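Session log. Operator J.P. requested a structure for one protein chain; no other inputs attached. Running the standard single-chain path with token output.
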Amino acid sequence: MTGVTVRLTVNRAAWRQHVQSTATSYGAALVPVVKGNGYGFGRPELHEVVRELATGTVCVGSVHELVDVPHDLDAVVLTPTLTPPSRPAVLTVGSEAHVQALSGWHGAVMVKLASSMRRYGASPDELGGVVRAVADAGITLSAFALHLPLAGTDEQRIIEVESWVGHLDPSVPLWLVC
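Structure written below.
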């Protein structure tokens, strides 16, 4: 079998209109994610779209992807790292080991909570230890994050969020990632 080349052509005007419509419908609650190869568009091009949407914040996959985030955008790194960032960014942690890997760094973190996505994250039983480790390390806790699956019903997602609410400090924002 020989290789097959696939070419995707995007109607730029229609795509931009869809992005703008989606951003408008979510308002300030929307935080765009630009990671990897920028979904085929390239990260720098998508960062320009984020700037135009005026959200002020962008999430990236790793600390290595901070290199092309414009400095006028706040950045959140979604994958735990052993390397503190080269520029100001909120890092994501999901365990005490993630916090310990940041020893000596004094920025801000978002604590990822375990969910039915079955990726990394603190369980309800582990959350207190992670939050204490963050405080003991002199790191600022900026938010909690709960990554919910697209599969399932809204009712199932609401039940999952509600199961976490009693475990969280209500003064710390909860980000829902879908």
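Operator note: The chain has a mean pLDDT of 92.
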